[in-house]
Amino acid sequence: MKTIFSFLHSNRNNWEIYLFPIVVCLAFSALFINNDNYVYTTEIQIASGAGQKQLKRFDTTSISVYQTMLKNPDIIASAQRALKKDYNVDISQKLLVKNITTTPVLSGNTLIIKASNSNPELAIAMGKQVTKSLFYVLKSYIPAKQVSITSTSTLKNVKKVSVSFAILISVILGSAIGLSIQMLAEYKARNHSFEKRHK
Question: Which segments of the chain have a pLDDT < 50?
Answer without folding.
Answer: none
